[in-house]
Write a structure and sequence with these properties.
Helix 1 crosses helix 3 and helix 2 crosses helix 3. Helix 7 links the parallel strand 4 and strand 5. The protein is α/β, with parallel strands linked by helices. The protein folds into two domains: 141 residues, Rossmann fold (3-Layer(aba) Sandwich); 67 residues, Orthogonal Bundle (DNA polymerase, domain 1), CATH 1.10.150. A six-stranded parallel beta sheet has the order 3-2-1-4-5-6, with helices on both faces.
Length: 217
């Protein structure tokens, strides 16, 4: 029986995943490389430093991976400054409903811990989660299952007792490799990517209940 929910963050709780994708595209464009979002699917959901390390080597960028990452983070922060940190539609209500139903929850994100804590505090939901886990602090980032296995352990749950909500190609692979049920969250504004390994697809949080999320039917 599934008893816990593990949330990815960017693109699942916060409307920020697209800023990382656009930031990588902007980084490459300023170095004379023009790609489309679909060209970056292999990076969706993976730790940013890993992504920038691969991009720097592949396209022979005249800067370090850390400098590439700093530029993408600056782009992200500029976009958030323009419109504020926005939650995905309906997610705050769902998280509070799960919390009120005594469902254990954790955030398991490829973002840094500082960013996770800041975002959860900004949205006023940090107290709803039993654990916050950063893939940047795991030995292997997504698509490896480490961050989800660590999150399950931190809230004293077995993998088969956990449900994951993911928006990214690599995140879905990580969840399924961890042996967990996975909802792919695909809102209308999301960049298209392959989430076919997920157990089902959610297009709006407003269309699902606590029972739907736990998927114990």
């Amino acid at each position: 029986m599934r008893k816990a929910v593990l949330f990815d963050m960017d693109g699942v709780i916060t409307d920020t995943e697209r800023f990382y994708v656009d930031g990588m595209l902007d980084l490459l464009k300023r170095n004379g490389i023009h790609l489309e979002p679909t060209d970056l699917q292999e990076f969706f959901g993976s730790p940013l430093l890993h992504n920038c390390t691969v991009l720097q080597a592949r396209y022979h960028l005249a800067k370090t991976p850390q400098e590439c990452m700093d530029e993408v983070v600056t782009y992200r922060d500029q976009q958030i400054q323009i419109g504020g940190l926005q939650p995905m539609d309906g997610v705050l209500e769902l998280i509070r409903e799960l919390h009120d139903a005594d469902v254990k929850m954790a955030v398991a994100s490829s973002s840094t811990m500082d960013n996770i804590v800041h975002n959860m505090e900004t949205l006023g939901i940090k107290g709803c989660f039993k654990a916050l886990v950063s893939g940047a602090e795991c030995e292997h980032g997504k698509p490896a299952p480490d961050v989800y296995l660590k999150a399950a352990k931190e809230i004293s749950m077995k993998p088969e007792e956990c449900v994951v909500i993911e928006d990214a190609y690599n995140g879905v692979i990580a969840a399924k490799t961890a042996g967990m049920y996975c909802h792919a969250y695909v809102p209308p504004q999301a960049y298209r990517q392959d989430v076919s390994l997920a157990d089902d697809v959610i297009t709006s949080y407003r269309d699902v209940t606590v029972e739907d999320i736990l998927a114990n039917n």
